[in-house]
Input
Amino acid sequence: MQRSSSPPGVVFGAGAYLIWGSFAAFFGLLSFASPAEVVAQRIVWTLVVVLLVLTLTGRLGAVRGIDARTWRMAAAASAALSLNWGVYVLGVTTGHIVECALGYFINPLVTVAIGVLLFRERLTRAQWAALGLGALAVVVLTVDYGRPPVIALILAGSFAAYGLVKKVIRLDALPGIAAEGIVAVPFALALLLVLMATGRSEMTSSPAHFGLMLATGPVTLLPLLLFAVAAKRVPLSTMGILQYLTPALQMAWGVAVMHEPMPASRWAGFALIWTALAVFTTDALLRGRRGRALSVAEAEAAAL
Output
């Protein structure tokens, strides 16, 4: 079925990325707890909500029928996502929101680099240029920060790894999220029990803290549901452009609200990243347009 950029589909897609973009504000409210506890609570409550949705929709059987190979892949995806969540919460709660945004800006470039290194994919000149600009940006930002942008690089690498597993795993979105949660929840519960036993758990320290921790479940699942709906209605090229809403909002929050420093050298590094993304996105759109035109021409020739 051909996808069309219907207004409802674009709204769902934009809604998903806008919610993800607001995560810096939401998870900033959880700074009362350690990043490890926040991630553990997020794993538990997201799993609870996903299992509830699967039960209500009669799709819980999709989880029961998962084979051993798929469980191993779900474990790999869960490890990558847990690392991503933990580093993101750490960055947000320690005043590195702009660096977190950088991670999601460079994520598409890291994904392309993984394709070259692991799958020997051949790149166009524009894609090589984009990768070169991205690498130069990392060098500029390393000089600016006085260290490599470790948070950004881990976020980009872990999310690219997660996307790689999700690309090949044979599970729909909700059963996949449930499987990842089932794999991770024993470790999350063990950590929460240790924190409670040692008096370091913050969830029950006040009703507000309890409510915020509980909210991590639906807050995590809602944009995933919106994304799943949008992905069936909106072309990948449109979704590729919409994805930049998330780091743009995160960066705006870090600079305008949290007043994180942005010297000229840092702006220069981000400018290089944005130029690389512009080159990368334009190339993808042009190749997609040429591919569609070729398909139409072949269909017309076959009909003659």
